[in-house]
Amino acid sequence: MNKSKYWIALSSVEQLDSAFIQRLYNYFGDIETAFNSSLKDLSDIDGLSVKKAEKFIELRDKINVDKAYSDVVDRGVKFLTLEDENYPSLLKNIFNPPAVLYYKGDLDLCNFERTLAVVGSRKATFHAGEALNKIMSELSGTDICIVSGLAAGLDTTAHSAAIKNNLKTIGVIASGFDYIYPTSNKDLYKKIENGNGVIFTEYYPTFEPLKFRFPQRNRIVSGLSYGTLVVEASLKSGALITANLTLEQGRELICVPGLITNPNTAGIYKLIKQGAAIATCADDILNALGWEIKTHEQTKFDFSELDEDELKVYNALELEEKGVDELISLTKIPLENLLTVLTMMELKGIIKQVGGDRYKKV
């Protein structure tokens, strides 16, 4: 029997939150029984007032179970309930996990054993974006999955940088799938859905992106993740809310330091003073989480295959990216020969061009 439709039906009512749905489920031990409970049945639940029980009956009686279910399926929205074996175990362990997780994308693409949340300011500085892009590039091609909130600012940078660096990513939105917020992220939504990860929401498709839903969403971002990387956060910000939820959930909190004159780093230094780990590179994150990462491609390049000029270029790029003029100066390779060497090394996947005539190690 399809009991999922009862989970969907209950989550389709805006006045019933996840905590209440779980309370009913935990008491009755069966979602269909919980859905069909009488006022007398509900009166036996400790702490549940008669008024709240009556309100539930009133709301429940207005639900068309089959229609609520078919409206989700017809939209092409997939879902997981707390009873599903594929429901992320890390998220299930938090206080008040979502009763239903609606999603688009491919769960199998994401490694839920290597999830890192990335949060930060919606009005990010150039410095913060550069720092985050640097860290994402250092994680390039690994099996780490980046989790964020698909909001403007550093959330967008995190998802975009993940995709650029061949990392899978999970976006958690604060509305149902009938809405895309912000609308500027429409293309990013599509990229994640179509082969780069998953978009999750606890909200039925018709629910709007109302203000109170954004802080509620943050518990899912941190709840899905073994640790949270905070890139910028003012003292009153959603990023700081997520940071505090991370600590409440017993997960690792990691901060990227920034300019002390930037108001968006006031929250960062508050967290660092309270004991958050500091990250200036990907290795700091791996050490904080105790991870040994694997790349998607398990084979390592054999550097004995490099010829003398290729080895010179590789060594010149050891610490940082460099332009063609710098490489000529360091390697003493003539320009014409150097351009050929750079092209061959790009084809082998050892280096990549990062804008203009600059190159860096992969």
Query: What is the number of beta strands?
Result: 12
Largest beta-sheet characterization: 9 strands, mixed
CATH architecture of the largest domain: 3-Layer(aba) Sandwich
Q: Tell me the radius of gyration.
A: 24 Å
Q: How many structural domains are formed by the residues?
A: 3
Instruction: Return the CATH class of the largest domain.
Output: Alpha Beta
pLDDT average, as an integer?
Answer: 93
Unreliable spans: none
Summing up helix and strand content along with how strands pair, one would put the structural category as alpha/beta
How far the N terminus sits from the C terminus, by CA atoms, comes to 51 Å
Strand content: 5-15%
Order of helices and strands: HHHHHHEHEEHEHEHEHEHEHEHHEHHEE
Approximate helicity band: 40-55%
Which shape, going by the Cα principal axes?
Answer: elongated
Q: Kindly identify the CATH topology of the largest domain.
A: Rossmann fold
Total helices: the number is 17
Physical arrangement of strands within the biggest beta sheet = 1-2-6-5-4-3-7-8-9
Question: Can you give keywords for this protein?
Answer:
362 residues, alpha/beta, DNA polymerase, domain 1, nine-stranded mixed β-sheet, three-stranded antiparallel β-sheet, 12 strands, 13% strand, elongated
